[in-house]
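Technical note accompanying the year-one report. For the benefit of new consortium partners, we illustrate the data format agreed upon in the data management plan: each record pairs a sequence with a structure-token string. No post-processing was applied to the example shown here.
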Amino acid sequence: MTKRAVFSLSILLVFLFHVINTLAQPTAAPVQSTAAPNPPAKAPAKPATPPTSAATPPASPAKPPIQSAKAPAQSVQVPVQKGSIDVTKILAKARGYSVFIRLFKSTGLAAQLYAQLNNSNNGFTIFAPTDTAFSNLKPGTINSLSDLQKTQLIQFHILNSVIGLSNFQTLSNPVPTEAGDTSAGEFPLNVTTAGNQVNISTGLVNTTMGGTIYLDNKLAIYRVDSVLLPLDIFSPKPKKAAAPKPALSDSNTTTTAAESPSGAAAAAAATASSTTDTDAAKANASGAVSLSTNKMLLPIGIAMVAFLMGKGT
């Protein structure tokens, strides 16, 4: 009995020792898979790079075109006309230019430009003021002008060549117009550009060119928001009165007359006349002396003849 009890106790102690050692050990971490993921069956193919030689550098990426900043890129309001070119019809389609159209017709310039645009190679550029531009003038400004001044006013808005948007910076000031003389105080027109802006100056009005109404190879029409007033009509130069001529003395008159060709001739004629009169006077005097001498000698001669005849008898 005692041996069995000792044997059973020994087995129990061994079991307890084993259980205690097992519980004392840390729990093992889960094992992670070390296998790398399989690559895709086919990788996307890269575009083949062409071989570059040492002499030829690699091509740079194309750059977008750079537009010029000097001229405004504006859309055309009225499309290019088919057939004959009529300025009045173009402006009527654009609308808002009734006053300019009326003056353009009444001055006869509409018919003249129509003939030149359709029967010759001449080209023109027109700055067309809007109806608002005319309404901003003082009341009676246009009605107070003569027919000639109205014609010159419309001509002042017309250039005798086609000027595209990119060509305004090439103009030389003052720019000639159909009105004529570009000298100071007459009809000078100055055009300058600043970035995308075209500026127009007359000496009385400074304005900026607006949108493009019409443009082809023979005609360009641009909107302006102010009427271009020329100096010759709206601020004419005062005419200088002729200075009075100074009074001349007798000596100055004689000297001046002698110095001028006509004066010299007159002086020569006067001298000749004086000389002739002097000679005539001398001749008359000598004649008178001779006549008186003859009258004295005649009785003496008669007396001597009578004396000799009496002595002979």
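Partners are asked to follow this layout when depositing records. The first strand starts at residue 124 and ends at 129.
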